[in-house]
Amino acid sequence: MDLRKRLTAWMGLFSLLLIACVSLYWLNAARADAEEELRASARLLQLIDALGRAEANPARVRELVAAGGFRHVTLRLGGGPDAPAGDDAPGWLAPLAAQVQFDRQPIALNLDGHVVHVALEPYSEIEEKIRDASGVILFTVVISAISLVACWLTIGRALAPARRIEAAIRALEDDSQPLTLPRFALREFDRIAQTLNTLSAKLHAARQRQRQLSRRLLAVREQEQAELARELHDELGQSLEAIGVCAAYLLRHGPSEPEHPQRQCVRDIQQETLRIHRHIRALLSELRPHGLDGLSLAEALEELTRQWQARRPEVQLDAHWQAMPPLPARHALQLYRAVQECLTNIARHSQATAVQLRAEVTDGRLCVSVSDNGVARVVPKYGCGLLGMRERLESVGGGVTLALNPGGGLCVSLHAPLVGLS
Question: Which of 14, 123, 328, 344 has the smallest set of CB atoms within 10 Å of its CB?
Fold first, then answer.
């Protein structure tokens, strides 16, 4: 059943129930009014009967008049012709009674020298109407409250699947498993749920393909970097070594004067060769960190932080790697690249003056935290750099967590398992 039909059915059922309640209320009110009218008429007939008897008993008449219970009339025994026929109206009824137009002059009935004054009295009718109106108002308030509660419960029950669907949409960010929303009784929500299930399955498959592609790209990139590092080391290294040997030969067999232009030129060649050699060595450490093949991540990270500190002496860097156990080569490489990306981001964006790096083993995982006191005040979204770190570590079963430091800055937690993936 669709939502429109279900809501219409519920509201129709509630309307029928409301009509039944109103009908019962009015029938009960009519019965009570009829009983009261009949009791008043019976008392009046009894009084007429007592007055009409030849041997009328004055005590009986006084008893009936004193008992009261007459509607629309008041009776009083004794008094002169101008004596009031009944009690004054209550204070809160006087303004209403004053507006009622009727003959207020009482009628005197003689009974063996006793006078019964009979006068019209509107107060009982006004009280009846006020009582009926109060009952209607109270009944309306109760019905309104019940209507609101029924509407709240009905709409809440009808829209309950919407909250589950909303939670499922938010869970789309967690792509560990595709959504499996159940079937719903309402046609609209059922269609939305099945569409979301299909969309989630396709999105999950697309993300899986994206991860596989990212892993392949990372593997190809690392392979290319390794080959480039090998070419730089083998080709350029040998060429620079040959240039150094030639320069040493020229310096040894050339002019002996220290200030000779040829000797000065040879020394310039040696210095430039040494500078190029140091630059290539730094490139090699970035392309293929030395020591990772031997599962020595601590030495590679120590070299990385030392080079980073040398380029930025104004930043206070505190690194501790003593608790770092050996890792599989692929895990160590991805963790190294992630720390390298963190330091690059700090240098580019954070404006930090202090950086801390810590390593600890927790639940079979090596966790490395990189914390700074930079300008970050909100957790950044995953851009290219952070997304690359996450893809790298997720490819080996690890992950990345971002958090703000209490005093400002960002803390990036990197973790990877100590054993390889099966």
Answer: 344
Q: Which two tokens stand for residue 191?
A: 């269609």
DSSP 379: P
How many whole angstroms from its chain centre is CA 150?
26
What CA–CA distance (Å, rounded) separates 107 from 92? 27
Cα 368 from Cα 358, distance rounded (Å): 6
pLDDT of residue 93: 61
CA 152 to chain centre: 21
User: Dihedral of CA 347/349/355/360: which sign?
Assistant: negative
H or E element, residue 336: helix 329-345
Write the CA distances from 191 to 3, 186, 202, integer angstroms.
12, 9, 17
What is 244-278 written as a DSSP string? HHHHHHHHHHS---TT-HHHHHHHHHHHHHHHHHH
| Rounded-to-integer distance, Cα 95 and Cα 300, Å | 100
Cα(403)–Cα(422) distance, rounded to whole angstroms?
Answer: 31
Amino acid at 301: L
All residues at 6 or more sequence positions from 221 whose CB lies less than 8 Å from its CB, including other chains: none
How far apart (Å, rounded) are the C-alpha atoms in residues 287 and 235? Answer: 16
CA distance 336 to 402: 17
User: Please, what's the b/e burial string for 357-387 (b: 16 or more CB within 10 A of its CB; e: otherwise)?
Assistant: bbbeeeeebbbbbbbbbbebeeeeeeeebbe
pLDDT value at position 328?
A: 82
- pLDDT at 86 (0 to 100): 45
Distances (CA, A) of 35 to 21, 28, 30, 38: 21, 11, 9, 5
pLDDT at 291: 52
The torsion angles phi and psi of 407, rounded to 5 degrees, stand at: -90, 5
Other CB atoms closer than 10 Å to residue 116's CB: what's the count?
A: 22
Residue 210 and residue 194: Cα distance in Å, rounded? 24
Give the mean pLDDT per block of 10 residues along the chain (422 residues). 71 80 80 77 71 62 69 66 49 62 66 65 72 79 82 78 83 73 82 87 83 78 77 77 82 77 84 84 70 65 87 90 76 87 89 91 88 87 76 86 89 87 44
Q: At 319, which helix (H) or strand (E)?
A: strand 316-319
